[in-house]
Amino acid sequence: MPTFAELGLQAPILAALKDVGYEEPSPIQAESIPPLMEGRDVIGQAQTGSGKTAAFGLPMINYVDPDEREVQGLVLTPTRELCIQVTQALRTYGRHKGVDVVAVFGGAPIRSQQAQLRAGGHIVVGTVGRVKDLISRHSLVLHSTRYVVLDEADEMLDLGFLEDVEKILSLTPNSRQTALFSATMPLEIQRLADQYLYDPVLVKVAAKTLSVDTVEQFGREVAAKDKPAALVEVLQAERPEQAIVFTRTKIRCDQLYRTLRDQGLNVKALHGDMSQGARDGVMISFKEGRTPILVATDVAARGLDITTVTHVINFDVPTSPDVYVHRIGRTGRAGRSGRAITFYEPRQARELEAIEVHAGIKMAPWTQDAHVAPTAPRPAKPRRHAAKPHDAPAVANGAAPPVGKLAKLIIAGGRADGIEPSDVIGALAGGAGLEGERIRNVRVLERFSLADVPADALETVLSSAVELGGSPLRLEVARS
Ligand code: AMP
Prior knowledge:
Layout lengths: L10 H10 L6 H11 L4 E4 L6 H12 L9 E5 L2 H15 L6 E4 L5 H9 L4 E5 H9 L10 E4 L2 H6 L3 H9 L6 E6 L4 H10 L4 E4 L10 E7 L5 H12 L4 E5 L2 H13 L4 E4 L5 H12 L5 E5 L13 E4 L6 H8 L9 E7 L4 H11 L4 E2 L40 E7 L8 H12 L7 E5 L3 E7 L3 H6 L3 E2 L2 E2 L2 E3 L3
Parallel strand pairs: 1-6, 1-7, 2-4, 2-5, 3-4, 5-6, 8-13, 8-14, 9-11, 9-12, 10-11, 12-13
Antiparallel strand pairs: 15-17, 15-20, 16-17, 18-19
Helix pairs in contact: 2-3, 3-4, 6-8, 13-14
This protein binds adenosine monophosphate.
């Protein structure tokens, strides 16, 4: 493996790489950077997690002349999330060289993006729709853009952006250099490459060499109706630091989110029907580690790069082996080990097998104590955000205390006040000196919240005034 210095990158870039602690190029970087530095077009077949952003980004930063106030590099992304992620990475790599990177994406005020473009930007990273929009408003001019990257081209195809991508490409100089990165190579993408890339170098990182190798993979057969309970059981046994739970559709995502939330779990949902603002909030909260469990659809979680994800749970069987590899590529990154658990219904055993064959892996059956099996050693590291047993009382197994008579409480304060289920549990249990798991059926509604407490602890809870969300806790016993 060559070193970054041997790849010929400029000193300020090497300094930036030192800052972020990259010791050596990843395989996709070692193969893509030399041809890109020579000015050649490249087709990179690689997934998130392979280091593809630096593979196209480092030569781009190297290419840019900071003294020239024009857009010299353009990265097109299918989603806003990926756009933000790539922007952050490029800013990091280009910091010492003084390269300005501007992100443009839909769902945010176009005016501030126009202002940023007016103020200058050597590299623009943008979603297809917003880039097109800004071009038509003459806010984005591509006549000096000689380094163009299409990131996750297959996703652009899936989202129906291909025509727009072609339009944008046709507005850049013919003499441009083009890199196309894609996890898969459907015919339409090959055709796009044939038409818009010149004599490209093909760089492929086999799925097997991806981070998937460092992920322990399990399957769990479960009937459709038992899935939510099985999930809670898995979360309790595994105690993930951070987990992404994948569902097949937005509706299922929302349903599962509500179910888990109503169990008192600290969970958030991420799907395409949410407003951009809400999605951003969730992404930030997850990235910062404040949300331990994220229920997401494939589209919404596309390209998510979160190094702290310890678990990926496929609540629904992925629709293809590619999707499977893509999903579990979210965990087990950068030398960490991760765990992936795939739920399948008895009738889906064949689908699971097909995934195993195509992805070249074998899933072991998941059991309650699969996580302590001697063949599956786990790194002993502190878990900041473990899903505690009290987070999931209602479907809890033997570990939870027996349910006695419960009293229902109405608590002033809800989502509108930024209250989360864990806050309610903390406020009720904390003041009364109860164990968190004795607070049950927590539901946070818009303006107020509901929770059940053991009837024998009701007096204590009522008399121990604790704060909730910064104000004194106001409680009332519900009359049922
Ligand atoms: P990507 O596939 O571009 O989303 O990158 C996946 C993750 O790997 C990101 O968190 C990068 O910061 C990290 N990464 C990329 N290149 C390297 C490298 N050469 N050494 C260590 N980590 C890297």
